[in-house]
Specification:
The two termini are 30 Å apart. Strands 1-7-6-2-5-3-4 form a seven-stranded mixed β-sheet, with helices on both faces. The longest helix has 30 residues. The protein has one domain: Glycerol-3-phosphate (1)-acyltransferase (3-Layer(aba) Sandwich). The mean pLDDT is 92. It is globular, with a radius of gyration of 18 Å. The protein is α/β, with parallel strands linked by helices. Helix 4 links the parallel strand 3 and strand 4.
Protein backbone atom coordinates (compact mmCIF):
# COMPACT_ATOMS: atom_id res chain seq x y z
CA UNK A 1 0.00 0.00 0.00
CA UNK A 2 2.80 2.46 0.86
CA UNK A 3 4.57 1.73 -2.43
CA UNK A 4 1.36 2.25 -4.42
CA UNK A 5 0.65 5.53 -2.62
CA UNK A 6 4.23 6.68 -3.30
CA UNK A 7 3.79 5.93 -7.02
CA UNK A 8 0.57 7.94 -7.02
CA UNK A 9 2.44 10.86 -5.44
CA UNK A 10 5.03 10.74 -8.24
CA UNK A 11 2.20 10.86 -10.79
CA UNK A 12 0.63 13.81 -8.95
CA UNK A 13 3.94 15.67 -8.94
CA UNK A 14 4.28 15.09 -12.67
CA UNK A 15 0.74 16.42 -13.28
CA UNK A 16 1.47 19.49 -11.16
CA UNK A 17 4.72 20.18 -13.03
CA UNK A 18 3.04 19.86 -16.43
CA UNK A 19 0.27 22.16 -15.26
CA UNK A 20 2.82 24.73 -14.09
CA UNK A 21 4.58 24.64 -17.44
CA UNK A 22 1.30 25.05 -19.31
CA UNK A 23 0.25 28.02 -17.19
CA UNK A 24 3.64 29.73 -17.08
CA UNK A 25 4.80 29.19 -20.64
CA UNK A 26 1.54 29.11 -22.62
CA UNK A 27 -1.59 30.46 -20.92
CA UNK A 28 -0.10 33.53 -19.21
CA UNK A 29 2.01 34.74 -22.18
CA UNK A 30 -0.79 34.30 -24.71
CA UNK A 31 -3.41 35.86 -22.42
CA UNK A 32 -1.55 39.18 -22.76
CA UNK A 33 -3.03 39.37 -26.26
CA UNK A 34 -6.47 39.87 -24.68
CA UNK A 35 -5.87 41.23 -21.17
CA UNK A 36 -3.73 44.11 -19.94
CA UNK A 37 -2.68 45.55 -16.58
CA UNK A 38 -4.95 44.84 -13.62
CA UNK A 39 -7.38 42.84 -15.74
CA UNK A 40 -4.56 40.53 -16.79
CA UNK A 41 -3.38 40.02 -13.21
CA UNK A 42 -6.92 39.10 -12.16
CA UNK A 43 -7.17 36.69 -15.08
CA UNK A 44 -3.91 35.00 -14.07
CA UNK A 45 -5.00 34.75 -10.43
CA UNK A 46 -8.25 33.14 -11.54
CA UNK A 47 -6.44 30.64 -13.77
CA UNK A 48 -4.17 29.51 -10.94
CA UNK A 49 -7.07 29.43 -8.45
CA UNK A 50 -9.12 27.15 -10.69
CA UNK A 51 -6.11 25.04 -11.65
CA UNK A 52 -5.04 24.46 -8.05
CA UNK A 53 -8.65 23.86 -7.00
CA UNK A 54 -8.79 21.16 -9.67
CA UNK A 55 -5.43 19.75 -8.55
CA UNK A 56 -6.61 19.66 -4.93
CA UNK A 57 -9.74 17.76 -6.00
CA UNK A 58 -7.51 15.40 -8.00
CA UNK A 59 -5.49 14.61 -4.87
CA UNK A 60 -8.75 13.78 -3.14
CA UNK A 61 -10.00 11.59 -6.00
CA UNK A 62 -6.69 9.70 -6.06
CA UNK A 63 -7.16 9.00 -2.36
CA UNK A 64 -4.03 10.84 -1.30
CA UNK A 65 -5.75 13.43 0.88
CA UNK A 66 -9.11 14.52 2.22
CA UNK A 67 -9.89 18.20 2.82
CA UNK A 68 -12.14 19.33 5.64
CA UNK A 69 -12.94 23.04 6.01
CA UNK A 70 -14.32 24.93 8.97
CA UNK A 71 -15.65 28.44 8.42
CA UNK A 72 -16.71 30.54 5.44
CA UNK A 73 -14.06 30.89 2.71
CA UNK A 74 -16.35 32.55 0.16
CA UNK A 75 -16.40 36.23 -0.74
CA UNK A 76 -13.01 37.06 0.79
CA UNK A 77 -11.70 40.23 -0.83
CA UNK A 78 -8.88 42.60 0.02
CA UNK A 79 -7.69 40.79 3.12
CA UNK A 80 -4.34 39.69 4.52
CA UNK A 81 -4.52 35.93 5.05
CA UNK A 82 -2.07 34.41 7.53
CA UNK A 83 -1.63 30.71 8.19
CA UNK A 84 0.65 28.23 9.86
CA UNK A 85 2.87 26.36 7.43
CA UNK A 86 3.40 22.65 8.09
CA UNK A 87 3.46 21.34 4.50
CA UNK A 88 4.47 22.13 0.93
CA UNK A 89 0.82 21.60 0.01
CA UNK A 90 -0.36 24.55 2.12
CA UNK A 91 -0.18 27.23 -0.56
CA UNK A 92 -1.79 24.98 -3.18
CA UNK A 93 -4.70 24.14 -0.90
CA UNK A 94 -5.24 27.75 0.17
CA UNK A 95 -5.15 29.24 -3.33
CA UNK A 96 -7.41 26.43 -4.56
CA UNK A 97 -9.82 27.29 -1.76
CA UNK A 98 -9.73 31.12 -1.88
CA UNK A 99 -9.94 33.12 -5.14
CA UNK A 100 -8.07 36.33 -6.03
CA UNK A 101 -4.94 35.50 -4.06
CA UNK A 102 -1.40 36.80 -4.34
CA UNK A 103 1.64 35.59 -2.40
CA UNK A 104 5.06 36.89 -1.42
CA UNK A 105 8.29 35.76 -3.05
CA UNK A 106 11.95 36.70 -3.33
CA UNK A 107 13.03 38.34 -6.58
CA UNK A 108 15.48 35.51 -7.34
CA UNK A 109 12.45 33.41 -8.37
CA UNK A 110 12.04 35.75 -11.35
CA UNK A 111 15.23 34.22 -12.75
CA UNK A 112 13.52 30.83 -13.01
CA UNK A 113 12.37 30.56 -16.67
CA UNK A 114 9.48 28.26 -15.77
CA UNK A 115 8.24 30.24 -12.77
CA UNK A 116 8.98 33.71 -14.15
CA UNK A 117 5.52 34.52 -15.51
CA UNK A 118 3.67 32.99 -12.55
CA UNK A 119 5.83 34.93 -10.09
CA UNK A 120 5.54 38.13 -12.14
CA UNK A 121 1.75 38.23 -11.98
CA UNK A 122 0.80 36.24 -8.87
CA UNK A 123 3.55 37.05 -6.41
CA UNK A 124 4.66 40.27 -4.76
CA UNK A 125 8.43 40.56 -4.48
CA UNK A 126 9.28 41.15 -0.83
CA UNK A 127 13.02 41.80 -0.91
CA UNK A 128 12.76 45.25 -2.51
CA UNK A 129 12.68 48.83 -1.26
CA UNK A 130 10.33 49.01 1.76
CA UNK A 131 8.28 51.93 0.47
CA UNK A 132 7.80 50.26 -2.92
CA UNK A 133 6.75 47.05 -1.16
CA UNK A 134 4.24 48.88 1.06
CA UNK A 135 2.82 50.69 -1.95
CA UNK A 136 2.39 47.54 -4.03
CA UNK A 137 0.78 45.51 -1.25
CA UNK A 138 -1.62 48.34 -0.42
CA UNK A 139 -2.63 48.74 -4.07
CA UNK A 140 -3.14 44.99 -4.44
CA UNK A 141 -5.43 44.89 -1.40
CA UNK A 142 -7.35 47.96 -2.60
CA UNK A 143 -7.86 46.20 -5.95
CA UNK A 144 -9.55 43.29 -4.16
CA UNK A 145 -6.69 40.80 -4.09
CA UNK A 146 -6.03 38.77 -0.97
CA UNK A 147 -2.42 38.39 0.11
CA UNK A 148 -1.48 35.02 1.59
CA UNK A 149 1.42 35.10 4.03
CA UNK A 150 3.05 32.42 6.13
CA UNK A 151 4.30 34.59 9.01
CA UNK A 152 6.85 31.98 10.10
CA UNK A 153 8.62 32.46 6.76
CA UNK A 154 9.28 28.74 6.41
CA UNK A 155 7.69 25.40 7.17
CA UNK A 156 7.53 24.46 10.82
CA UNK A 157 7.76 21.04 12.40
CA UNK A 158 4.99 19.48 14.54
CA UNK A 159 4.89 20.94 18.07
CA UNK A 160 7.48 23.57 17.14
CA UNK A 161 6.83 26.97 18.69
CA UNK A 162 6.01 29.50 16.00
CA UNK A 163 8.33 32.46 15.46
CA UNK A 164 6.33 35.20 13.79
CA UNK A 165 7.82 37.78 11.45
CA UNK A 166 6.14 41.18 11.65
CA UNK A 167 5.78 41.69 7.88
CA UNK A 168 2.18 40.45 7.73
CA UNK A 169 1.17 42.83 10.52
CA UNK A 170 2.94 45.71 8.75
CA UNK A 171 1.12 45.04 5.47
CA UNK A 172 -2.29 44.97 7.18
CA UNK A 173 -1.55 48.10 9.25
CA UNK A 174 -0.29 50.02 6.22
CA UNK A 175 -3.41 49.16 4.19
CA UNK A 176 -5.75 49.25 7.22
CA UNK A 177 -7.38 45.92 6.34
CA UNK A 178 -8.48 42.94 8.39
CA UNK A 179 -6.29 39.90 8.87
CA UNK A 180 -7.84 36.46 8.45
CA UNK A 181 -6.01 33.79 10.48
CA UNK A 182 -6.18 30.21 9.18
CA UNK A 183 -4.92 27.00 10.74
CA UNK A 184 -3.87 24.00 8.67
CA UNK A 185 -3.68 20.64 10.38
CA UNK A 186 -2.86 17.25 8.85
CA UNK A 187 -3.17 13.91 10.60
CA UNK A 188 0.03 12.64 8.96
CA UNK A 189 3.32 14.56 8.42
CA UNK A 190 3.26 14.72 4.62
CA UNK A 191 5.67 17.01 2.73
CA UNK A 192 6.92 18.58 5.94
CA UNK A 193 10.46 19.84 6.52
CA UNK A 194 13.18 17.18 6.77
CA UNK A 195 10.75 14.42 5.77
CA UNK A 196 10.97 12.00 2.82
CA UNK A 197 8.53 13.48 0.24
CA UNK A 198 7.23 10.11 -0.95
CA UNK A 199 6.31 8.97 2.55
CA UNK A 200 2.55 9.54 2.58
CA UNK A 201 1.62 6.77 4.99
CA UNK A 202 -0.85 3.95 4.43
CA UNK A 203 -4.11 5.86 4.70
CA UNK A 204 -5.82 8.91 3.27
CA UNK A 205 -4.36 12.05 4.91
CA UNK A 206 -6.93 14.49 6.25
CA UNK A 207 -6.16 18.20 5.99
CA UNK A 208 -8.31 20.31 8.29
CA UNK A 209 -8.40 23.97 7.27
CA UNK A 210 -10.03 26.33 9.77
CA UNK A 211 -10.84 30.00 9.41
CA UNK A 212 -10.58 31.97 12.66
CA UNK A 213 -12.17 35.28 13.61
CA UNK A 214 -10.84 38.32 11.75
CA UNK A 215 -8.14 40.35 13.46
CA UNK A 216 -9.29 43.95 13.07
CA UNK A 217 -6.55 46.56 13.10
CA UNK A 218 -9.01 49.16 14.36
CA UNK A 219 -9.53 47.15 17.57
CA UNK A 220 -5.90 47.70 18.58
CA UNK A 221 -5.12 51.07 17.03
CA UNK A 222 -5.40 54.20 19.17
CA UNK A 223 -3.95 57.70 18.76
CA UNK A 224 -1.34 56.85 21.40
CA UNK A 225 -0.27 53.52 19.86
CA UNK A 226 3.09 53.67 18.10
CA UNK A 227 3.63 51.76 14.86
CA UNK A 228 6.21 49.52 16.54
CA UNK A 229 3.88 48.66 19.42
CA UNK A 230 0.96 48.04 17.07
CA UNK A 231 3.03 45.67 14.93
CA UNK A 232 3.99 43.70 18.04
CA UNK A 233 0.43 43.50 19.32
CA UNK A 234 -0.91 42.35 15.95
CA UNK A 235 1.94 39.86 15.52
CA UNK A 236 1.17 38.40 18.96
CA UNK A 237 -2.48 38.04 17.94
CA UNK A 238 -1.45 36.30 14.75
CA UNK A 239 0.70 33.84 16.69
CA UNK A 240 -2.11 33.14 19.14
CA UNK A 241 -4.60 32.48 16.34
CA UNK A 242 -2.52 30.27 14.03
CA UNK A 243 -0.79 28.17 16.68
CA UNK A 244 -2.24 24.68 16.93
Amino acid sequence: MRVLRALIVILEMFIFAIGGLLIGLVIIPFSTLKYKGLEHRKFCANVVHKSWKFFSSLLCKFGSIKIETNGDFSNINGKVIVANHPSLLDIVLLIGLIPNCLCLAKKELLKNPIMHNIVKYLYIINDVDLEDFKKETKEALENGFNIIIFPTGTRTLPNEELKIHKGSAQIAINANVDIIPITIKADYPVLIKNHFPLDVGKNVITFEITRKENIKISDYKTPDTTDIKLRKVISDMIKENISL
